[in-house]
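Can anyone check this?
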Amino acid sequence: MKRKRILSGMQPTGTLHLGNLEGALRNWVRLQDQCEMYCCIVDWHALTTLYNRTDQIAESRRILVAEYVAAGLDPQKCAIFLQSDVKEHAELHLLLSMITPLGWLERVPTYKEKKENLNLEPEAISYGFLGYPVLQAADILVYRANAVPVGKDQAAHLELTREIARRFNHLYGEVFPEPQSLIPEETAVVPGLDGRKMSKSYGNAITLADDADTIAAKVQSAFTTPTKIRKTDPGDPENCVVCRLRRIYDPNHFQISWEECRTGVRGCVQSKRELTELLNAVLEPIRKRRTELLSDPTELDKILSNGAERARATAAETMKVVREAMGISTA
């Protein structure tokens, strides 16, 4: 049976954090042995908000390649490449933009959320900012992907891609499969140091680049139980960042520490010290591999070149079918 084809991607906006690792990368690493994987670094998407800071994108692209591989993605098993190295993304984006109603884009929830959360000036809300879901659809459809691995909170984002695929197929014939959300059975929601969802924009993240001392300092600042002043005071592990992170990184034994916290047998100092040890044990091999890759630009270039070659072959095949279906083929 033909393997399922999957497209996944992230924006190059700096080093990844534990939320990215547990919420996405771990799942991608599992899937690369089961599926035909295309792992994209969507650098054109980053221009929607970093159009005036493009130097940051260039550096972040290399960091993201290194972190993909350091986290366990194997360039021999999946194509790791830059979106901007496969021009077929841009061509399909242009063609799809011609058939996508403006109203579809204006009702995308993330468009409204980003406008509000980023406090953008009117002149910063560009056509690309509004139309990024069409480029996102092109990223997926140019590989005729069957599925996209996403978290539960992102599943609705794929619906617009499916709508665009349906509209294209209705107008020009069946070309694109409607990609489905591939949601892992259980994905850890990683809390940030302040209790909100971990995010670089909130400044509450532990990153894959943090060294041992930085992690210790960050864990020391993490939100616990406000009413647990003394060791003997009862804690509330369900709402304690340190305890919730302990549950993710010590799944077989966290119940003991939680009960000790709840009954006042354990203090926050001990919990933070042990969590720091757990996190450093997990991140040390990733940090080491990341550092090795970033010190070898030739290896990173080779990974991207090979990945782009594989991606272009598939994307070019799709665009040949698209042009023929639309009656604009030059062949």
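Reply from J.R.: I decoded it. Residues 210-290 form a domain with the Tyrosyl-Transfer RNA Synthetase fold (CATH 1.10.240.10).
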